[in-house]
Amino acid sequence: MLPFFIVALDASQFRQLEKALKRYLALKEIENDKNITSQLTKESVKELEAKLKDSEKILPFEILTAYRHIALTGFMGSEAVFYDDLGIPTVGAPQTLTGRVRDFLKDKERVLSHLTPKYILDRTLRSDEDVKEMRAIYDVFLKTPGMPIVESMDVLLSAVRSGVEAGLLGVKIDGKVYFNEPVYSLSSDVEVLRPERARELKAQAEAGAVYSEGEGGGKAGEVGETATLLGKEEARPVAPGKSISELRLRARIPWDKISSIISGVIRPLKDSGSEPEIVVEIKARSKEGFDRTTLDSKVKETLQQLGANIEEWKEE
Questions:
Q1: CA quadruple 214, 220, 226, 229: dihedral positive or negative?
Q2: Which residue, 189, 187, 149, 193, is CA-closest to 171?
Q3: Which residues contact 302 (CB under 8 A, 6 or more apart)?
Q4: In 10 A of CB 104, how many CB atoms?
Q5: Is the predicted pLDDT of residue 143 greater than 60, yes or no?
Q6: What digits encode the pLDDT tens for the residues 247-273?
Q7: Residues 6 or more apart whose Cβ sits within 8 Å of residue 39
Q8: pLDDT tens-digit readout, 51-97
Q9: DSSP annotation of 256
Q10: Could you give the CA distance from residue 198 to residue 170 in angstroms, rounded to a whole number?
Q11: Model-level pTM?
């Protein structure tokens, strides 16, 4: 059974609401009857208007107080009906019945306005699923008995977006994998990936790009970096099944893609063996010239704080 709820009246409070409605309708009818109002003094007309205004003002409170019970079923994975009392509303608070019910369901976590990436992976992907379309994940929340309802698709998109940036899950958009990086264009037809699968696919794509580009390809602009993993002198295609004991890789990398190198290159190598030895070669140029504060107090001091062994420092 899919989750649903019914809002019900409180018997005693309904009598109070009925009384308030009758009073309002009676005062409204008097105000609209010109035969009556024409015979009233100015003071009586003002008094009538004040009573009508007070009667109209109290109606929303009486309606919220009367419709204070909610019956729910299917939310807890059971066909049993659960009853809850919304309580007495706050006097003077600008609240609608719809908003009151929505806030109650959110407080009870039967309607979710916030999701975590881990919750998405644990509750919407089977153990044998590495990938699932965003729309299918949304349907799990809407159609699965016992599951809470997501307030909107935007809630899901926001959770996935933060998960991709934090490296907790990945997405595939138009054949490109995004993982451990910002992603802005998300829709219901993108594919959501487990982090292990996203890391694997992204590493394969980046490794293929580095190999096809070769040692002389790629231009990083005025600031370039070369990451060297110590091992064999060069990378060559290896026959399937052949074991590779060491790797030496040299590639020019755009300065704004360093974080992707860590997630897509360094981490897979570390996971497959011991910690790689990394030597970073940086060539930076400035038409105006680097000032001493930048070189000594920022660049060199940061390297020293990281415990780096500066093998070469050449200034021109």
A1: negative
A2: 193
A3: none
A4: 20
A5: yes
A6: 888 887 776 667 667 767 777 777 677
A7: none
A8: 999 999 889 889 988 988 888 775 545 566 777 888 888 776 677 88
A9: G
A10: 5
A11: 0.48
Contacts 24+ apart (CB under 8 A), 52-58: 52/24, 52/27, 52/28, 55/20, 55/23, 55/24, 55/27, 56/24, 58/20
- Ramachandran assignment for 133, one of left (phi > 0), alpha (psi -120 to 50 degrees), beta (any other): beta
* Per-residue pLDDT, 260: 66
Residues sharing a CB contact under 8 Å with residue 45, sequence separation 6 or more, in sequence order: 37
Q: Which CB contacts under 8 angstroms, 24+ apart, belong to 187-192?
A: 187/134, 187/157, 188/133, 188/134, 188/135, 188/138, 188/153, 189/133, 189/134, 189/135, 190/133, 190/134, 191/131, 191/132, 191/133, 191/134, 192/120, 192/125, 192/131, 192/132, 192/133, 192/134, 192/137, 192/160
Contact (Cβ atoms closer than 8 angstroms) between residue 63 and residue 96 = no
**First CA to last CA across the chain, in angstroms?**
74
Whether the Cβ atoms of residue 70 and residue 104 lie closer than 8 Å to each other: yes
DSSP bridge pairs for 192: 132, 171
Residue 229 has pLDDT above 80, yes or no: no
Q: Which two tokens stand for residue 9?
A: 């009246």
* Helix segments in the chain, DSSP class H: 11-32, 34-37, 42-66, 97-107, 117-124, 134-143, 153-166, 195-213, 258-261, 267-272, 292, 301-305
Distance CA 44, CA 46 (A): 5
Distance separating alpha carbons of residues 6 and 97, to the nearest angstrom: 12
